[in-house]
Write a structure and sequence with these properties.
Layout lengths: L6 H11 L2 E2 L1 H9 L4 E4 L3 H7 L6 E2 L5 H5 L16 E4 L5 H11 L5 E4 L2 H7 L13
Helix pairs in contact: 1-5
Length: 134
């Protein structure tokens, strides 16, 4: 099956339209508790690697439903003003997710430069996956 647009083109388009939060700026917002970090990785990734402390786990497959107030799956955390910093492992899924949320009309949303891999590599705080995180 031939595809007309691959993931690289999708990522390139997303990156032109979204804000990428530099790691140092994200760290500062984290330390000041001035941002809501949203972990969109699969639960198995969280269990294996942990997550940013106090981050909200919103699986990529449910994100649009959790953000939309008209959805039966809506989560109150998304009613806050933000800023919201999305992250995944390598900043691919979070780039596409950030673009989707912007297209839904969500403001004050960006994604973390380099993803969780970058956060871990910088030796920043990591917590074990919590059973309930919102």
């Amino acid at each position: 099956m031939a595809i007309s647009k691959g993931y690289k083109a999708l990522l390139e388009e997303a990156m032109q339209q979204i804000k990428t939060m530099p790691l140092e700026e994200a760290r500062e917002l984290y330390e000041l508790s001035e941002a809501c970090f949203i972990d969109i990785r699969d639960i198995r990734e969280l269990e294996r690697d942990g997550m940013i402390p106090e981050a909200v786990h919103a699986p990529r497959g449910m994100l649009e439903f959790w953000v939309d107030p008209d959805s039966p799956y809506y989560r109150d955390v998304f009613g806050q003003s933000g800023p919201f910093i999305l992250y995944c492992q390598s900043a691919w899924r979070s780039a596409l997710a950030t673009l989707t949320l912007q297209q839904m009309g969500m403001e004050n949303v960006c994604h973390l430069e380099g993803g969780f891999k970058n956060w871990m590599g910088a030796g920043l705080p990591i917590a074990e996956k919590r059973a309930v995180n919102h």
